[in-house]
Amino acid sequence: MLARQLEALGVIMGKKKESNHESTFFLNVNRWLMEQSGGSWDNPQSVHYLLDNKKARRQVTDYVGRYLLRTPRIVSYLGWGKYIRYRSPFALDIPWGWKCPLNTFTLPIWLDLFPDAKVIHIYRHGVDVANSLRQRGRREANPSRLSGLYYKLPILHAIRPKSGEFIRTRCDSLEGGLSLWEEYFAEARAHISVLSGRAFELKYENFLGEPEKTLKEIARFCNLPASNATIEGVAALVQKERAYAFREKPELQAFAKRVAGRLLAYGY
Question: How many domains does the chain have?
Fold first, then answer.
């Protein structure tokens, strides 16, 4: 939601994006960065081995800056028109950015490359996040027609063994999803304390309650010359009923009560 709103306010968010409005270029680079130390989006802590290793961090940062951000690979983010004009994000003279939850853990690498970057951190109730992760994982675990054929014909496995997992097991439970939310939240807060005025943090539920007010603050933070009329139109993308969605389900309400102390530690 916020990524789409930023784009509507004039921020380039990438030419090629996936369903969650994440730039596929930066998403793939972030995944690669996580893999350097055996991490993944649902097991992110190991990236600190990379960040704490000065030599490895320097090599990785140099590679990303020299061979990814300054080569035709960046076309998937810039598009051909902007690539021909600018060649690299380093040369952009217009507002740009990208949305990717993995930035929470890979941010030090990106700040090595873009030391003047500004960061927006939006956070949501932990139970809603945990439930969303569980639902998404179970949807993805359902076999498609093509994968169904793959499992019916064992010979195909001799040609191409299955890659990836059947189920993202950590987030298949509310407890697993909540613990992951805590890790991301704590990591984000650590960055914000260092970035100070270059970070903008907002609570999802408060944003839904006052979208126009918050968007005006975001526009000022990002130095976007957005008119009141534009902001009013963009605010219409907000679905206010999504705030505290867990309250509609007894199972989620009961879980929220069990973990009330943990939620309270992050302002819920």
Answer: 2
